[in-house]
Known about the structure:
It comes from Mycolicibacterium hodleri. This is DoxX family protein. By secondary structure, the chain is mostly helical. The chain is built from 8 helices and no strands.
Amino acid sequence: MATTDxxxxxxxNPSALHDxxxxxxxxxxxxxMVHGGVLKAVDFPSTVQFMExxxxxxxxxxxxxxxxxxxAGGAALLLGxxxxxxxxxxxxxxxxxxxxxxxxxxxxxxxxxxxxxxxxAAAALLFVGAGGWSVDARVFGRPRWPGAVTIPxxxxxxxxxxxxxxxxxxxxxxxxxxxxx
Length: 181
């Protein structure tokens, strides 16, 4: 058997390659979120202090919100369980995390950071689904969810991020110049 025959046999099912790519994306975003959430939970007083020093109103509530979202959303993505809902929560949390990072300086000084990339990865997972190697596919028969589910959840994520930011922070995160203290 020639090497090309093995390659053809392994790549003849494009769905399997898609599922592998989605699995890799899902595991990386899920692990990143669980890691971030557990770090916040382990040193929760520092998380609250960070939120307080960043001007968040109700910093303890905000810290609980982001910690729970990162741990629960990340765990769900690792399993591929209710992927659109998990992606929605992670997307909202990462939009606010990105806003925290860019609010201290001019918006273009460091716009492409980890929360920015994770937000886009979560948005991608929201629309493409968990893939064939997931609880969504095995239990619910849904490796992908319909647009009637994903588009509203995308809008909910953006609205939740903006609402959370406005109610719990209240400061415009986008500046054309470095803000004065």
